């Protein structure tokens, strides 16, 4: 369960209740609800501005891809540690909202803007959309897919154009295997390699 709590109003909670808890701006007054912010116009359900910003931020997070660092949240023991920039980016990195990793556990903090769009970039962290292992796996999968497409193409050519390509490839591989085992110089091998018919 992922929670985006808000404080300082009668609707908010100040406890960590979910598997992963996200505290934008420390969970207190949201910048969008202060002077110069546009939170009051973004919150349209009649709730208080600070509390209502929770769903506003979540809705905005849907439009961002994990390849960016919008709404990137850092796991920290406290808001003070986050502001001191003493919390690591995390591996893998974590996002608040729609792109949150369902395996995430812990308490996460991030900053948002006073005005829409509210998602800020974390320039000190890489997006971390894919790990090195995932990239290698995708490359191997791509290679296998290309080989599979080539095989399907050869089968279709053989079926629709009458070219026994696969049979020729198999025969050639078989003859090379015979040569490798020292049988390439046998009379039967020479007959098989020649195009001449054998009279009986």
Automatic annotation (TrEMBL):
TM spans (from-to): 135-157
Gene Ontology cellular-component terms listed: extracellular space
Compartment(s) where it occurs, according to its Swiss-Prot or TrEMBL record: Secreted
GO biological process entries: lipid catabolic process
Pfam families in the record: Lipase (PF00151)
Signal peptide residue numbers: none
Any one GO MF annotation of this record: lipase activity
Highest rank taxon of the organism: Eukaryota
Lipase domain sequence ranges: 9-118
Keyword match Membrane: yes
Keywords: Membrane, Secreted, Transmembrane, Transmembrane helix
Family under the similarity heading: Belongs to the AB hydrolase superfamily. Lipase family.
Protein name, per record: Lipase domain-containing protein
Lineage, uppermost ranks: Eukaryota, Metazoa, Ecdysozoa, Arthropoda, Crustacea
């Amino acid at each position: 369960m992922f929670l985006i709590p808000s404080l300082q109003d009668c609707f908010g909670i100040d406890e960590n209740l979910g598997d992963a808890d996200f505290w934008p701006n420390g969970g207190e007054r949201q910048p969008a609800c202060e002077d110069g912010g546009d939170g009051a116009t973004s919150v349209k359900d009649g709730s208080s501005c600070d509390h209502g910003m929770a769903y506003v931020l979540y809705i905005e997070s849907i439009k961002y891809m994990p390849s960016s660092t919008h709404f990137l949240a850092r796991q920290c023991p406290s808001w003070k540690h986050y502001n001191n920039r003493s919390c690591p980016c995390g591996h893998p990195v974590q996002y608040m909202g729609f792109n949150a990793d369902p395996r995430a556990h812990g308490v996460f903090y991030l900053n948002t803007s006073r005005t829409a769009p509210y998602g800020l970039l974390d320039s000190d962290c890489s997006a971390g959309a894919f790990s090195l292992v995932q990239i290698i796996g995708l490359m191997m999968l791509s290679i296998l897919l290309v080989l599979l497409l080539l095989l399907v193409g050869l089968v279709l050519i053989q079926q629709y154009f009458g070219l026994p390509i696969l049979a020729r490839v198999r025969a050639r591989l078989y003859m090379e295997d015979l040569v490798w085992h020292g049988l390439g110089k046998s009379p039967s091998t020479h007959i098989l390699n020649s195009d001449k018919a054998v009279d009986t």
